[in-house]
Amino acid sequence: MSLLPDDILPDILSRLPVKSLLRFSFRCVSKSWLALISCPDFVFFCVLQPAVVNNHPLNSCPVMTLIMELCHGNYDCGIMLYGSCDGLLCMSDANSINDFFICNPSTRKSKKLPYESVELPDINNIFYDCIYRFGYDNTNDDYKVVRLAFRQKTFRGDIDEYEVKVYSLKSNSWHRPEKFSQCPKMGSFGDSIAGGALHWISYVKTATPKKRLIVAFDLGTEKYRVIPQPKYAGPHFFLYLNNLGGCLSLSCQYESSVVEVFLLKEYGGENEHWSKLITISPTNPFVIFYTVKPITYSKCGKKVLLNINSSLIWYNLEQQSFEEVRVRGMEDITQVQTCLESLVSVDFPPAVCISY
Hints:
The chain is mainly beta. The chain contains 5 helices and 21 strands. The chain has helices spanning 9-13, 18-27, 31-38, 40-45, 62-72; strands at 79-85, 88-93, 96-104, 109-112, 126-137, 142-153, 159-168, 173-175, 193-194, 197-204, 211-218, 224-227, 236-244, 247-254, 259-265, 273-280, 292-297, 303-308, 311-316, 321-325, 354-355. It has a 5-stranded antiparallel beta sheet with strand order 1-2-3-4-21, with no helix packed on it. A 4-stranded antiparallel beta sheet has the order 5-6-7-8, with no helix packed on it. A hairpin with a 4-residue loop joins β3 and β4. The protein is globular and about 70 Å long. Residues 60-76 and 350-356 have low confidence and may be disordered.
């Protein structure tokens, strides 16, 4: 039997489903194949495909599963998702946020994050909230979880103080970087990691009227920069950041209830600029509030899937028309994450992985 050339074999194997590649590694079809599949370069060379997530570390416990089914009817109601990157999912138990995991559903490997306390000063009549986001640090070849903890005033809901902490999968530890001078606005966060940075909206407290800033926190350098904003069509009162096809997207809701969605092109370069993607006008005069979250493009690239007021909508870019997507049993969509098959490992040495 003739052997395949060395330069062709990786290309062929990279097109196979992860499940097939894992069979090769378990059965040791070839020591050379096993070495190739285990190589970090091959892991990132693989052609990523959509993955069906039907198992994760939080459904491995039969007692917890039974409790969640009795309480919610569906165990997945007790899962909080904080992001997906290169086939890895970041999640926690909704009832116990200390049970925090990074997992790869394709390889069925996961890692529980060490507990990290919130170190904001404790003040009476103040409550805390946290936002977690998960992404890849291409500067240090690491995966990181960014946690922003907020201290809010009970009645008004304004951010009184906040802290930033970062978990590194490579070091399996948390640390506290320097924070930005202005507090983030909680409602501005979507899946807003793009270009290797986490993004949010901050208000300048001294400005009248309030001035909004788009802040980028670089996952590699852990430094901040303020991104220039697009030219708005008029007065606006709500900005929302998200990720669409790897680009940072900005949804701007105007006082007229019109919503515009912009994409930041050529991120970080000299020609970085905003490009308007769509404009949505209210068809019903009584509908005065839109929450527009771009999710993904269609395969042909002519449609954009949007989450509008908790409903999934296809928007045709050419015809400028809408088509609602109905999913049985999921009438209200509050959160959407796309997970891809991959061989990316959660086992950065030294680490102990959990099989589920």
